C-alpha cells in the first residue's frame, strides 16, 4: 500500500471512529442532561482523538498533512454529530458553524500531536 492509500484509509477510519463517538455522545445527551452539559468539551475531545488516530495510522506524512488530515477528520465527524444533535432539537443551527470550527482546530492539534509523538520501535 502506498502513502496516499495509507493516508486515505487512515482518514476514512479516523473520521468513521470520530463520527460513531460523536453520534453516540449526542444521542446519549438527548436523553441524559449530564452528557448534554458536556457536549462542547466531549465533542472537541473526540475530534482531537480523531486527529490523533489519523496521524498515527497514516504512513510517512509531513506535519502539515498530519494536521490537515486531523482537521478534516475532527471537523467532519463533529459536523455530522452536531447535525444529528440539531435534528434532535438539542442545539441551535449556529452551533453547526462554531462547533465544527472549534472541532476542526482540535482535530488539527490531534494530528500534530500524533505526528510528533514517539512511535514504538515495531512501528517506526
Notes on the structure:
The structure is a single chain. This protein has five helices and no strands. It has 124 residues and is mainly alpha-helical. It has one domain (3-116). Helix 1 (3-31) runs antiparallel to helix 3 (39-57) and helix 3 runs parallel beside helix 5 (94-116). The mean pLDDT is 93.
Instruction: Tell me, rounded to a whole number, the average pLDDT.
Output: 93
How many E strands?
A: 0
Provide the succession of SSEs: HHHHH
Please tally the helical runs, counting DSSP H or I stretches of 4 or more residues: 5
User: What global shape is seen?
Assistant: elongated
**How many distinct domains?**
1
Strand content: under 5%
End-to-end distance, in Å? 16 Å
Uncertain segments? none
The Cα radius of gyration reads 15 Å
Sheet with the most strands, sense and barrel status: none
Helix proportion: over 70%
Please give a quick description of this structure.
The chain has helices spanning 3-31, 33-36, 39-57, 63-87, 94-116.
Features:
124 residues; mainly alpha; 5 helices; 0% strand
Task: Explain the layout of strands and helices.
Layout: H1 3-31, H2 33-36, H3 39-57, H4 63-87, H5 94-116
